[in-house]
Structure formats: C-alpha cells, structure tokens
Q: What sequence folds into this?
C-alpha cells in the first residue's frame, strides 16, 4: 500500500512543481507595464542614489507578524491534510478486499484481534488443550518503507525550486531491464515476521519465530520454555529473563527430517499457506486504515 501510494502521488506532484516553476519563470520574463513605468525613474537616478532600488523594495514590503505567518502555515497544512484524506478515501474505494483476507476470516479457526491505533494484530485459536497465538505487526511495513526511502542528497538538491539539474543520460537496454526488475521487486510482498506461541497449561510453551513470505511459512527458530509467560514475553522483565535461558538451537541447524516434521506440526495447528498469504494482505489493509485515522487526528489537532 505504501509503494502504491508513493507511485500514485509522484505524477501529480511532478506536474505541480513543473507548472509552478513555469509560471514563475514567465512572470519574471515578462514584467508588467506598470512595473516598468514605476522603475523608469529609478534607473535614471541610479547614479545619483545607489540605494534607491533597495529603498523602493523595502517600502513595498509590508511587515507580517509571527501570528499571521503561523496562521497561514496552519491553514495550508490543514488544506494539504484534507487533500491527503480525500486521496486515501478514493484509493480505498477503488480497491476491493483481497479474496485471501475474506476467505481466511470466514473459514479459518483463528479469532482475529485488531485494536485500532495498535500496530500489532493477534490471531488466537484452541487446538485440543493447546492455546495457539500468532502475532504480527504493521511495523514491518514501516521498516521496509524507511529502507527504500533512504535520503539521497543529489535527488533532494534537484527537487529544490530554481535549481537546474542536468538531464539524465538515456539508460542502456540492460539498465532499463534492471530498472523493470527493481519495479517488480517493489511490488513483492513484505516478509512478515510471525511470533507463534503454542501453550499447554502446566507444561510450558513453544515459541516459534517465522516469516510469512511469498505464500510460504519459513521457520527461523523453534524455542521451548517451561514457563509459558517467557514465551509470550508480555513485559520487558520477562523478555530479559528469557534471553538468559537456552531455548534451543537455530532451526536451520536441525536434522532435515526433524525440520520437516516440525513444519508439519505447525501446519496441523493452522500455520499454513493460507495464513502466509493472509498476513501480508491484511497488513496492507490495516496500514491504510491506521494512516487515514492518523491524518484525521492530525488535521483535527491543527484545526483546533
């Protein structure tokens, strides 16, 4: 959703920057006849008074108080926020809920817990005497967006108004092909971290760290804790205590047959391909919903 939002905005912003710059250049190139006539006496008196032009400018510039300037900025910001709210609303109306999300919510044994304003989403189910919890966060989307939006001083300088930047050289066929591959990579779903806890009362809990990516569940670590609270890590103290324990070896170092059986163990409990497809799609929906709420909250604060 973030990459789609950025692509959708790039065209109108470029057009706006080009249009405003063109208008400014035309205004400078063709001064009005009134300005010419008012400046004519000043040209004739430049030799006698070297400061007449600057005095003229100072006389024409009206003082602006800090309160008036701040009010103008607040108004412009409010208008821009309203524009973004409308943009996101139109974007949401043009998109349907993915079938993967509908099917999972209708047919999955997991119960979804999504608290507005929170980054984390939780899926919970019962399996015999076990309680299974899967947690993921939209923070992974933010991390990916920040990595792709690294600061480039050359690009930033080129975006400044009035700065002339050389026209880029035409890319070779190989470079164009590489650029197309990069664009395809940008549309690739974000690898979503999953924190899976399988808990049995009075026995302990398994804590599985995995990734949902390209429709697959990839297990990174398969931990065991005798104290189930350590697996859930609901506080900083518990998380710190868990770090001091030996929870198990890295999953990739295990015997391959053992890895396969552990993956099947998770599949039997609903950690399947359907979940791997659902999580990235639902993260996009939640990120857009939270972003729209953030825009409205910020606008309400500015307008208050």
A:
């Amino acid at each position: 959703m973030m990459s789609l939002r950025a692509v959708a905005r790039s065209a109108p912003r470029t057009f706006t920057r080009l249009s405003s710059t063109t208008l400014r250049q035309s205004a400078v190139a063709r001064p009005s006849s009134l300005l010419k006539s008012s400046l004519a006496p000043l040209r004739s008196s430049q030799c006698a008074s070297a400061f007449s032009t600057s005095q003229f400018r100072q006389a024409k510039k009206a003082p602006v108080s800090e309160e008036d300037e701040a009010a103008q900025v607040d108004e412009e910001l409010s208008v821009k926020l309203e524009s973004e709210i409308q943009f996101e609303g139109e974007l949401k109306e043009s998109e349907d809920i993915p079938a993967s999300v509908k099917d999972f919510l209708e047919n999955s044994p997991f119960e979804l817990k999504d608290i507005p304003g929170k980054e984390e989403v939780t899926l919970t189910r019962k399996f015999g005497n076990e309680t299974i919890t899967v947690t993921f966060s939209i923070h992974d989307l933010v991390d990916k967006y920040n990595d792709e939006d690294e600061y480039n001083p050359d690009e930033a300088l080129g975006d400044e108004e009035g700065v002339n930047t050389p026209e880029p050289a035409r890319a070779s066929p190989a470079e164009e092909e590489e650029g197309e591959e990069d664009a395809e990579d940008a549309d690739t779903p974000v690898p979503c971290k999953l924190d899976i806890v399988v808990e049995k009362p009075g026995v302990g809990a398994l804590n599985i760290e995995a990734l949902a990516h390209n429709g697959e569940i990839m297990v990174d670590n398969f931990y065991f804790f005798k104290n189930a609270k350590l697996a859930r890590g609901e506080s900083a103290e518990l998380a710190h205590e868990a770090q001091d324990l030996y929870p198990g070896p890295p999953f990739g170092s295990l015997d391959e047959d053992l890895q396969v059986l552990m993956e099947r163990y998770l599949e039997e409990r609903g950690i399947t391909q359907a979940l791997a497809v659902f999580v990235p799609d639902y993260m996009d929906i939640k990120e857009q919903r939270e972003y729209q709420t953030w825009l409205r909250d910020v606008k309400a604060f500015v307008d208050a």
Summary: Residues 88 and 291 are 9 Å apart (CA to CA).
